[in-house]
Amino acid sequence: MRVLLVEDDPKVASHIANGLLGEGHECITAGDGASGYREATSNELDVVILDVMLPEYDGFTVLEKLREADNNTPVLLLSAKSQVEDKVRGLRTGANDYLTKPFAFEELLARIEGLAGRGKEGDDKTLIKVGDLTLDLVNRKVLCGEQEIDLQSKEFQLLECLLRHKGKVVTRSMLLEQVWNYHFDPQTNVIDVHISRLRQKVDKAFNVPLIETVRGTGYRIADSAT
User: Fold this and answer.
1) CA 139 to CA 94: how far, in whole Å?
2) How far apart are the C-alpha atoms of 205 and 210, rounded to whole Å?
3) 190 to each of 28, 164, 168, how far by Cα in Å?
4) What is d(CA 80, CA 62) in angstroms, rounded to the nearest whole number?
5) Which residues are within 8 A (CB) of 45 and not within 5 positions of it... i.e. 6 or more apart?
6) 48, 90 contact by CB (below 8 A)
7) How many whole angstroms separate alpha carbon 77 and alpha carbon 47?
8) pLDDT tens readout for residues 73-120
9) How far apart are alpha carbons 89 and 86 in whole angstroms?
10) CA pair distance 198, 204, nearest whole angstrom
11) Three-state DSSP state, 103
């Protein structure tokens, strides 16, 4: 990926940039909103990591200006603010995702890889396939070969989220936001219950485990899944 990081805290910026470089990605950095906007409009990018509290322009202003200029590069907002109102404002302004500080680098990486992958897939993709498993987004069906797997609505959404991020870790907070639309952790076992049900149905059809648990982080469908 080619990533633009707009962050005015040198320690945070260094941590993220070094992590991205270590994963083989290219990282362009900017320390204020004005230079961040210039970099975003003068480079071909896969994703922008944009801090909210910035000198010159704040992150919301940069995002507004980008969307007004018809720049649709996926944007992940970073903020020390955890209020739902700030998340809603960011998403309504045009952000694709929102992450509250402090965060684990692994979660940041999973989120931006998901955003970059989503952009490459395109919005017209109606079938997602992994080996013999087919997710039909139009007819809301899941097939293992010719055999249909009966999934409830949340189970379908959960599997869709995992498949869209195949080979990448999907964190619990990502699942809560994308499947249940929770922008906070309600401290329930709702994910565990649905993952368990999904495994019983999908793994039974495959006769091998398809969904991996990444301890302390989330879940993943392996790249090698067939």
Assistant:
1) 29
2) 10
3) 38, 21, 21
4) 17
5) 2, 3, 4, 28, 73
6) no
7) 11
8) 999 999 887 667 777 888 888 898 888 888 889 889 988 988 886 555
9) 5
10) 10
11) coil
Structural domains of the chain, ranges and CATH numbers in brackets: 1-118 (3.40.50.2300), 125-219 (1.10.10.10)
The CA distance from 94 to 216, in Å, is 30
pLDDT in tens, 21-66: 998 899 999 999 999 999 999 999 999 999 999 998 999 999 999 9
Burial class for 217, CB neighbours closer than 10 Å (0-12, 13-18, 19+): middle
Structure tokens at 91: 């998403």
Cβ atoms < 10 Å from Cβ of 167: 13
- Token couple for 183: 């922008």
Preceding omega of 74 cis (within 30 degrees of 0): no
| pTM, two decimal places | 0.62
What is the phi/psi pair of residue 3, to 5°? -115, 135
* CA–CA separation, 65 and 94 (whole Å): 10
CA distance 53 to 78: 9
